[in-house]
Amino acid sequence: MYNKIAGHIEEHREELEKIWKDRLINDGEERIIDVMPQHIFESTSTDFFDIILLNLKDKGREYKVKLVNFSDKVVRLGWPVALVMKGLREFVHTVQENLVQYGSIDKEREGDYLELLDKWMTPISNEIVQTYAETWEKTVSLQKMALQELSAPLIPVVDQISVMPLVGTIDTERARLVMENLLDGVVNHRSEVVLIDITGVPVVDTMVAHHIIQAAEAVHLVGAKCMLVGIRPEIAQTIVNLGIDLDRFITTSTMKKGVELALEMTGRKIVELEG
Amino acid sequence: MEIQSCVSILNEWDIVAARQLGRNVAKELGFGTVDQARITTAISELARNIYLYAGEGQLCIDRLNENGKAGLRIIALDKGPGIPDIRKVMEDGFSTSGGLGAGLPGVRRLMDDFNIDSDPGEGTEIRSTKWLR
């Protein structure tokens, strides 16, 4: 039974491939296919077809390895998972219908063939879903790491003055990092004044404010002063609306003013060279 | 006329998604940058309350159009423990989680209308609207 199917597929390969592609295009998944250029769809689906065939033929011999490579490749092709699943389903139907059409199988044994085809496809689809999930998990964890790396750097700009530019959303994890890096940095760089720049923070709600206030108080405890710079006008207004008290802070609208003020506080200033 | 879009709040990053949705809708409706910031901050507070106190819930954004007046309504829904004393939580500086206690009274000041409905043990529904001027 197995050889019969494999032989049939091989023999009518071109025809099957054409029917299968037409079905994929015409069967309501247009939304997905529309976003893909025609020639890319053509070549990828040929690849896809090749891989399915390869898997069928090589059953038993290094099957597992081939299957893993296959899933990797499908994921790399960048097809949406829904389309890949549909592709597998349609493959079964196309082959089965074609077999009946050519009279290669008896009508009454049709069910057995369908079952066999399904059995072939199940491990393939499981493996593909698995690979997709793993790829996504990997991407997410990589991005998490990347995010952490640019999370909260403390930069010593001049002697006794350090700057922490914050860009993007601040969640609890990041707030913790802000605090840690701030305190470590203040001690290591022997900073007198640290400037926290929130120009790049899209929303300052009570939680963000609370974390910044706590961080500033902690900085105070280790003997340095903390300044909040880069407060945009709309952020200033929402902070007032929220009723958050930042009186204990020295705040400025821009980093430039903040640095000048910090220099003043440490008894220095910027002068232009004469001549 | 109302068009509603919702975000489920299950983890901290959903707060960001809710905020983004609110900001986009506010931008579409033609709110200025200050009001956009007010609306996103209000959403942030309400979504965070869901995350902190109820664990899970929904945050929906309505586009309103009443008598030619356009507006944006935030609806925060959860089936959490509810709020036993609403008057208390609307006081500045009251917090059960060690926060600043500025969240709910803050939202009331950031928005135009504010309505809170809560049954202890049943959940909480907060509706708050900002009108386009």
Automatic annotation (TrEMBL), chain A:
Concerning InterPro entries, the annotation shows: Bact_StressResp_Reg, Globin/Proto, RsbRA_N, STAS_dom, STAS_dom_sf
Signal sequence interval, chain numbering: none
Q: List the molecular function annotations (GO) for this entry.
A: heme binding; oxygen binding
STAS domain: from which residue to which, for each copy? 151-266
| PROSITE patterns, per the entry | STAS (PS50801)
Q: Transcription: present as a keyword of the record?
A: no
Keyword terms of this UniProt record: Phosphoprotein
Q: Does the keyword Phosphoprotein apply?
A: yes
Q: What is this protein called?
A: STAS domain-containing protein
Organism of provenance: Jeotgalibacillus salarius
Classification of source organism: Bacteria, Bacillati, Bacillota, Bacilli, Bacillales
TrEMBL record, chain B:
User: Which residues lie in coiled coils?
Assistant: none
Q: What is the originating organism of this protein?
A: Jeotgalibacillus salarius
Question: Which lineage is the organism of this entry classified under, starting from the top rank?
Answer: Bacteria, Bacillati, Bacillota, Bacilli, Bacillales
Protein name (Swiss-Prot/TrEMBL) = Anti-sigma regulatory factor
Pfam families linked to this entry: HATPase_c
> What is the superkingdom listed in this entry's lineage?
Bacteria
SUPFAM superfamilies per the UniProt record, alphabetical: ATPase domain of HSP90 chaperone/DNA topoisomerase II/histidine kinase
Start and end of every Histidine kinase/HSP90-like ATPase domain? 35-127
